[in-house]
Amino acid sequence: MAVSTIAERFISGPLLASFMEAYPDLHLDITMTDAEFDIVEARFDAGVRLGEVLEQDMLAVPVSSAQRHCAVASPKYLATRAAPLHSQDLTGHVCIGWRPRPDAAPYRGEFTENGRDFDVAVDPALSTYDLGLMIRTACAGAGITFGMVETFQPYLTNGKLVPLLEDFCPPFDGFYLYYPKRHRQPLKLRVLIDHVRTHR
Cβ distance 96 to 124 under 8 Å? Predict the structure, then answer.
């Protein structure tokens, strides 16, 4: 499977652990990637990706509830700077950005206001593909970073990070296990699909 690095509900452990326990004779081979490519051409059986970027000819089963993007910062950072009140205020803040690969531009923060979607280009002081590095740096007070609420949830719960600009971050379609239409699906894939449906 080709699985998005931010599919937290799928990769957090319990769903995969319960599948491995139920089907000890089946072996999982998971490639963590945020690249968008044809999984059939690349010889993957399935993938996990956000619903908004799935190809139309794929079948899909939800593996998460609706998701939300958010901006977050540590109390330490916010003790020295006023929290942004509007997404456009981010351009005046130190930001920690994510990029899917070295030759790609940093992710642009995605927001919604009065039903209109827009993004904000910031000039990150630090850009990385490593979500763990982003989170650790934000927790240390270096700046504001962006991502899925689900990814940041443990740090929001323990107070190491604080959500920002929540009024500009409505929910959207979540993650799906997706796979190509075939006359007969391989048995190993069918049992994974049934397991995901049972453990949503």
Answer: yes
Sketch out the chain's domains with CATH numbers.
2-65+172-198 (3.40.190.10), 69-168 (3.40.190.290)
| Cα R_g (the chain), whole angstroms | 18
Q: Which residues contact 87 (CB under 8 A, 6 or more apart)?
A: 71, 109, 111, 113, 118, 120, 165, 168
Residue in the structure block whose two tokens are 């453990």? 199
DSSP state letter for 67: B
Query: Which amino acid belongs to residue 10?
Result: F
pTM for the model: 0.79
Which residue stretches of the chain are H helix?
8-11, 14-22, 75-78, 131-139, 149-157, 187-198
Residue 67: partners with Cβ closer than 8 Å, 6 or more residues away: 50, 148, 149, 150, 171, 172, 173, 174, 175
pLDDT tier for residue 184 given thresholds of 50, 70 and 90: confident
Distance CA 64, CA 124 (A): 29
**Cα–Cα dist 2/177, whole Å:** 10
Check: CB of residue 134 under 8 Å from CB of residue 128: yes
